[in-house]
Amino acid sequence: MDRNRVARAVGLIAWGYLLLCFHLTVGTIVLVPNWLCYIFFLKAMGGMEPVVPAVKLLFPMGVLLGIWEGLLWGYRILPCCTVFSWLPPC
């Protein structure tokens, strides 16, 4: 077990949670999107694997959540249209 690798993974998780808590926007554009925190979480999973082997089971769910947040982020940037009527209004 490499202590530096695990310490870096814990740091990435902390930064991911910090980014998840802050919502910086300019008009309707989100400057710190939620999908960015999922990238930090996914990068941290590789460093946590020697300590917690079951963390690799969370990787597909993290990818799906990141893609979903990316789609919602892109939807909020685009002008509102009726094609995505099942999504909440802008």
Give an account of the 3D structure.
59% of the residues lie in helices and 4% in strands. It contains three helices and two strands. It has helices spanning 3-21, 34-48, 59-77; strands at residues 25-26, 29-30. The chain has a two-stranded antiparallel ribbon with strand order 1-2. Strand 1 and strand 2 (29-30) form a beta hairpin. It is elongated, with a radius of gyration of 16 Å. The mean pLDDT is 83.
* Strand fraction: under 5%
Structural class by secondary-structure content: mainly alpha
DSSP strand tally: 2
* Overall pLDDT: 83
What coarse outline follows from CA principal-axis ratios?
elongated
Q: What is the string of SSEs from the N terminus onward?
A: HEEHH
Helicity range of the residues?
A: 55-70%
